[in-house]
Amino acid sequence: MRAGKFAALFASASLLLALLPTSAGAAVSIKIAIAYDIGGRGDHGINDSAAKGVDAIKKKYGLSSLAVREMVTNGTESDRETRLQFLASANYNLIVAIGSGYALAVSVVAVANPDTEFALINDASIGDLNISNLVFSRPDGAYLAGVLAGAATRANKVGFIGLASSGPMISDFQLGLTSVNPKAVVKSVLLDKAPESATRALISQGTDVIYSEWSSSSEVEDTVASLTTTKRPIYLIGVNPDQYFLLGKGSQKILIGAVSKHVDKAVADAMTAAINSQSIIDVLDAKAGIYGHMYTVKDGGVSIALTALGARYSIRVSAAIAQLKSGKVKLP
What we know:
about 325 residues, seven-stranded mixed β-sheet, Rossmann fold, alpha/beta, about 20% strand, single chain, 10 helices
């Protein structure tokens, strides 16, 4: 397989290897391992989304627990690395690591086991030909969030809360915003610490819709929920499944939508590729030697889910999705 990967790489600078047809229910000689992040199944977040893809492929190909092994880390770096090395030593053909928390462990174990294939979900930082980094287009998500914010704002002031890496996404958010509401302006905050005070500041400046990429805690959601009123409603747009807390009761009166990363699709694609002795190795960063696939609105890997509060804006959002899929809207 390794020789085939090198040949494929030099044949094209950017490719997604074709998935060869395998009939559902056919006997498959394959061993796949799923390394869930902290909490495993039942976390209402990235693990549950991944498990949805696992279950779909197990059902489609009739795979038993002997063919697909599932593990959960306790969250320490040593545990992550030990579990991955155990699976590699047990000759699993593919090890799917769920979440960026596995990045360092995957980088170590993949080098030590070059004949084992790895898929790292929601992270694109590790370069090696036996690693498929499967990630989701943040520009696409930011654009759709901007469209929703532009349709929902009444004050024509919207907020963007993110991390330092979110900086480039502000322009995509702005583009989506002004496509439906040219009068609206963005007030952005990039953080590396607790966001409560920054969220309060945005609201005090008159913003009535906030798009938050902050996923370390529910502080943005909690702050918005505490400050919204019937006379002056404040709405939130989040990111799913990163922000598992969006399913809480506190979100019901403020959440109008969430950018959705279809982790289940990425996991299912990785498993299907392994079943067909293939690998997913688009070139994501040639200089860093990072391969995998960037999921987008166009291939169904990114979308935006509207809540009951946001349903009234579905026509605007659907139009934006259609424009991204057709290529009419091209993001920087």
